[in-house]
Amino acid sequence: MRLKMVDLHRQYLGIKAEIDEAIQSVLTAADFIMGSAVKEFEDDLAGYLGTKHAVGCASGTDALQVGMMALGIGRGDEVITSPFTFVATAETVALLGATPVYVDIDAKTYNLDIRQIAARITSSTKAIIPVHLYGQPADLAPLLALAGERGLKVIEDAAQAIGARYHGRSVGTFGDIGCFSFFPSKNLGAYGDGGAMMTNDAALAERCRMVTVHGSKKRYQHEILGVNSRLDTLQAAVLRVKLRHLEAWTEARVRIAHRYDDALRGLELVTPYCAPDVRHVYNQYSIRTPRRDALAEFLKSKGVGHAIHYPLPLNLQPAFRHYVPEGTNFPVAEAVSGEIISLPIYPEMPGVEIDLVTAAMREFFR
Questions:
Q1: CB within 8 A of 27, min separation 6: which ones?
Q2: Dist. CA 205–CA 177, nearest whole Å
Q3: Inter-residue contact 176 to 155 (CB < 8 Å)
Q4: The pLDDT of residue 1
Q5: Other beta carbons within 10 Å of 202
Q6: Pairing relation of β-strands 99-102 and 221-222?
Q7: I need a surface site. Which of 75, 261, 315, 344 has the fewest CB within 10 A?
Q8: Distance between CA 326 and CA 117 in Å, rounded?
Q9: CA-CA-CA-CA dihedral for 247, 248, 251, 256, to nearest 10
Q10: Predicted local confidence at residue 215, as pLDDT
């Protein structure tokens, strides 16, 4: 038997009647593009997160790009972000002609080391993109204070962190724009791609919406340059159903993570850190060990699913090397990328499978 990282079929079976009804309603109405479910989901999502505006789009990657386009970020600008994240965070910056500027990560949270940001700000800096990696909120208070002092925009990359909270408030609602992904394996996942942007600024929300539909408010009248990045009605219908279950699923993830913490205590590894006054939502349960590669081979031999998020920081990726000055390195990100490995975690994961994972881990480290 192979233990999966995520079992989406098992999740579907638990909500099958609701999902089937939601999909059938869209098929019956033939309401596929910008249908009523899109606005309904946006309203539900804004209510859940506690923000004024939600704008759906085609993916989490597009949420970042559309958000930056709406903020006017482009050629000649610099955007500070993490080198230890999924490629989309910096890729979207570069695609707009701006320059990603990296700051090393904190060794505990794997998020931006806020203490290092000020030294990287220049006259060309336009924005900061903190990443709430693996579902752990970035330390937003000092980051927002610094951004306010320097007149910088803040775009939260909350792709892995829906439902996470910083000092009691949902991440993705602190910056100028918060960006979410609904990739199927996310805590709130669609049955395909999808994303959303959150903001409390009505004018900015309208501009984001315009960008997603070719820069128009009225059909065939294009006021600004835009793209085609709409959230499909079918995906919105699925997400609206799943959003109703998200809190219960998040609580289950936290329980599983704590069970892992207890079972792995005392082994030659570092379990995920959870900062004070935050809610970590464990999109990934990622541990560190200098024996990572050997552990990965062992888990494979035991049929235990695992993944490496991420094996190479962006500053060492061929596509991004020319953005990094010669001789610059990011020692924490580079060290973590050589030791990080993620174990299976999803809300429906049965106790017997959790036990099998932890037994394999204990066997390897004995």
A1: none
A2: 9
A3: yes
A4: 67
A5: 10
A6: unpaired
A7: 75
A8: 19
A9: -140
A10: 97
User: Crossing angle, helix 36-49 and helix 233-243, to 10 degrees?
Assistant: 40
pLDDT digits (tens, 9 = 90+) for 312-357: 999 999 999 999 998 899 999 999 999 999 999 999 999 999 999 9
pLDDT for the residue numbered 11: 97
The DSSP code sequence of 325-351 is -TT---HHHHHHHTTEEEE---TT--H
Give the pTM. Answer: 0.97
* Residue 131 contacts residue 140 (beta carbons within 8 Å): no
Which residues of the chain fall short of a pLDDT of 50? none
The Cα 331–Cα 107 span in angstroms is 10
The one-letter code for the residue type at 61 is T
Task: Spell out the SS3 assignment of 42-61.
Answer: HHHHHHHHCCCEEEEECCHH
- The residue type of 34 is M
How many other β-carbons are positioned within 10 Å of the β-carbon of residue 2? 8
According to the model, what pLDDT value does residue 207 have?
98
Q: Please give the Cα distance from 93 to 192 (Å, whole number).
A: 24
Token representation of residue 78: 């610099």
Paired residues of 179 in beta bridges: 157, 197
- The contacts of residue 363 (CB under 8 Å, 6+ apart) are none
Distance CA 157, CA 152 (A): 16
What are 218's strand-pairing partners?
221
Structural contact between residues 336 and 288, judged by C-beta atoms closer than 8 angstroms: yes
Helix, strand, coil percentages, rounded to 5, for the chain: 45, 15, 40
Give the number of residues written for the chain.
366
Unique residue bearing structure tokens 């439902």: 163
Per-residue CA distances from 145 to 128, 140, 236, 266 (Å): 12, 8, 35, 38
H helices of the chain, where?
A: 8-14, 16-29, 36-49, 60-70, 88-95, 140-150, 202-212, 233-243, 246-264, 292-301, 331-337, 351-365
Cα-based angle 149, 152, 155 (whole degrees, multiple of 5): 130
